[in-house]
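RETRY 2/3 - previous attempt timed out on the joint model. Re-submitting the same 780-residue input unchanged.
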Amino acid sequence: MQTSDLFELLRDGRPRTRAQLAQVTGLARSTVAARVDVLIRLGLVAPYGDGASTGGRPPSLFAFNPGSRVVVGVDIGATHAQAVLADLSGAVLASAGAELDVASGPERVLGWVTDTVDQLLTEDRRDLSHLAAIGIGLPGPVEHSTGRPINPPIMPGWDRYDVPGHVQRRFPVPVLIDNDVNIMALGEQQAQWPSVTDLVFIKVATGIGAGIISGGTLQRGAQGTAGDLGHVRVTRADGLVCRCGNEGCLEALAAAPALAARLREAGAEVADGSQVVDLVRAGDLVAVQAVREAGRDIGEVVATLVNLINPSVVVIGGRLAAAGESLLAGIREVVYRRSLPLATEHLRIVSSVVGERAGSLGAAALAIGHVLSPEAIETASAAVGAKLAK
Amino acid sequence: MQTSDLFELLRDGRPRTRAQLAQVTGLARSTVAARVDVLIRLGLVAPYGDGASTGGRPPSLFAFNPGSRVVVGVDIGATHAQAVLADLSGAVLASAGAELDVASGPERVLGWVTDTVDQLLTEDRRDLSHLAAIGIGLPGPVEHSTGRPINPPIMPGWDRYDVPGHVQRRFPVPVLIDNDVNIMALGEQQAQWPSVTDLVFIKVATGIGAGIISGGTLQRGAQGTAGDLGHVRVTRADGLVCRCGNEGCLEALAAAPALAARLREAGAEVADGSQVVDLVRAGDLVAVQAVREAGRDIGEVVATLVNLINPSVVVIGGRLAAAGESLLAGIREVVYRRSLPLATEHLRIVSSVVGERAGSLGAAALAIGHVLSPEAIETASAAVGAKLAK
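RETRY 2/3 succeeded.
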């Protein structure tokens, strides 16, 4: 039994005495006392009121103390960034956002990130010692183990850039990096579907991608590229050249830039995806039909995804999802027609509820998951132990 | 710290004394002694020679004892069944096989299963008390939590049949049921790719299906239908009616019966898939081309699977894989052309090495995984504890 196991026991928030912990775990009392001390020093556990009296001195109670430390979750989009300060239960304490072009490069963007972490800590009257970790989502493929973006198409200057290293020069805490769709899946699941173990979040915006949670775990795949929906080949995209260099990709047919281009050809004045959404909201028939058709095209690939992965919830998010029912209806139409009855019997296909905050909340969840992981607690415990021994 | 944690520590096979176990875990010596006793009674741990002398009486050593108990793994195919008796390390002690038509119904097929379990135990001079669990793979969708087949297309009489209940009337041990492709994935991984965490096994035979291991865990999805490659829509199958009732499924185009029908149209005398393989082996050009084309069609869907799941190994198995390089070459051709460079950079697409034994070995692995799981050990420990208290 390690210190992290003791913490797992206390994580439910119920206060317990040292004697109760010794009884439940079978650990020697002295061992329990030492490990509780370590957890208190780590800020994860705190004394809690007084234990029920057993006649003599009341025994002390201890419980998980989620408010003692904080994380920052950051979502970097193509043109916009958002950040939240959260405690270890995921409760949001402060937030910030800015227009920010990811193509302006890592120095500029990460400068905003570190300034914003400072600002959020100050806002909640926290100092550096309270900060436990930082989670960051980036709009491109990320090698999760090193936190480096790999050939990200819309992020010039970021290829294999040491993002954690840069941030850690200012904040010497664990920095976890993932791609934006993965953290959106985490954020939506934690906020809306905490008991769902098989959930796929599909982002439809400048690109199209998916974050896949299977068996309760975010699945990144062997190289971290799992969920790449956008570059699946669809027949209707035959002959269309994609920004990836290949032909026939779903993204070249159904992502926001493709829709905007098609509407321009039809005479509409649209520069980007958000204007497509504006047209749909204004009831423009051509735009509504184009978005519905994009939904059907996306639905072809989602039907395959449902056959292969068998999720119980598919969440549609991203800027184009803001067009409301048109996109969703097109996706549903094809999936319910094409996928196996057993796989769709209990399948729900829904719009993102968390919306624009899914990314930053998910990045915070990624950071919290790391801080409270057995591995991180053991490492931190060993460091505290070494300090005490000096 | 529970009894299962103590077992996890001992699972590496290295012998340890009670004192060493107490030191590593922080458990009281009396607790360690009691839990080691429980593990010995469960047959999971056994005394091991003598510990190094510390001057007085030599302390006893204990270690994981994989030979003390056995499991049976059974693979039921459409027309053939195979079974292995294995110890808790997965080492095969005895095996059996028979021609057996799954369509003859559950009573007949499970009668063979229970007779065979008896026979294998006798062969290895084991009695019922040695049998820890039975794993069974079936050629159709299975609800993993209950072990019941759900609308299995080639298994008349099996729909929602209580397979574990039937087997347990003769053998009162845990009985784990899964579909055949899932257990083949487990079997191939354990035997050939023990360190690979992201592996997909694709079976190409009468049907086409995949067993998906992501992040080291077999992924069954929300309803247990994950990996259903065969009913993904492919454009070249437009207009072809599938046995599932839908149109345009991959299976209707590229599985063994479709290939046999196409070769018959071309004038060849083929009744089933194994004769297609015979023709390919005999160098029949039409058959070779047909199998290669089937490989390309399957490759279209595998390319999507690689984009979505990002495995590092894709294993091609099943009867049609015995046609050798033709099928594999067709699949590789399309996947390496279509999937993202980052996803295919380290991707290996290979033929099954374990072949026909993958299923029964995987079923044994499924049974062993259950027996050695923390949950099963805690349940068994509690039962032993209750017995001792009487």
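The domain at 193-353 of chain A is CATH 3.30.420.40 (Nucleotidyltransferase; domain 5). Closing ticket.
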